[in-house]
Amino acid sequence: MAAGRTHNVGTLLLTPVVAWAAWELSQHDILTTWLAGIGCFFGIFMSPDLDMRQHTVSETTLLRWSLGVGYLWIFLWYPYAMLFRHRGISHTPLIGTATRVLYLIGIALIVQYAAQTLLGATWSIWPWAQEYQYGITVFIAGLAVSDIGHWVLDHVKL
To answer: 26 is in which domain, residue-wise?
Structure first.
């Protein structure tokens, strides 16, 4: 099993490859290239290791450099770590990506419900999600490739 730093280096090396592949597959669309690359890079912070109950290398880095925002990130993902066993289904390529994306959608829906109920807000995340569906999909695809790289590093003896 690879260490956290190894996963981060692997993701950093994979990011330009994902961006290049997106560039070629999209017939040189710059937005697709950026979104796929950023999705892959974001895999450093939204990795399968969010199912761990102790701080990951990425979370420690966030705590050190984010002026306190890292604590919010850790707080956000604590219930996820309690729901999933480390290296269980949340570590499975594509399925694990889906669990984290669905978890974030659930958090967004809770925030939306609270804002509408307590504050009388009238906004909804669905029009935004529909308007930016393509970009969200490309970002998630980049994230999924990062997760596949994470899985490969966990299962290949280097």
So the answer is: 4-155
